[in-house]
């Protein structure tokens, strides 16, 4: 089984959005038994919090199912447990490099690199634009799924 962990700052907006988008894409592709998807935070700001209401609205607007959850923080053991650790921005990548001792196995990636773009997924906590973040999450998740199943 392939294991994917999406990470962002607080695990209530971007990584959570990607988790639910990817789970739905996997369901549609009939691959949900082959690929495990979770999400966690790099920082502790929102630990225990549910998904941000703006993220929920964006997911609802696109027909993506989601469930109640609690933000969790990534641990060093997650590096060994997951095959792909997908970050949303360069700050997340710096946090991952510190946590993993420089990503010796090359598991950490920025989401949009799978779509051929060298840029970050904007944090809607600051921008307020959950639709733009959804579009990036969808684009990155679709590209990652293509890489995994082709």
TrEMBL record:
Pfam families: LMWPc. It catalyses: O-phospho-L-tyrosyl-[protein] + H2O = L-tyrosyl-[protein] + phosphate. Keywords: Hydrolase, Protein phosphatase. It comes from the Bacteria. InterPro entries: LMW_PTPase, Ptyr_pPase, Ptyr_pPase_sf, Tyr_phospatase_low_mol_wt. Residues 2-147 form the Phosphotyrosine protein phosphatase I domain. Its EC number is 3.1.3.48. GO terms for molecular function: protein tyrosine phosphatase activity. The active site is at 8 (nucleophile), 14, 123 (proton donor). Belongs to the low molecular weight phosphotyrosine protein phosphatase family. This is protein-tyrosine-phosphatase. It comes from Selenomonas ruminantium.
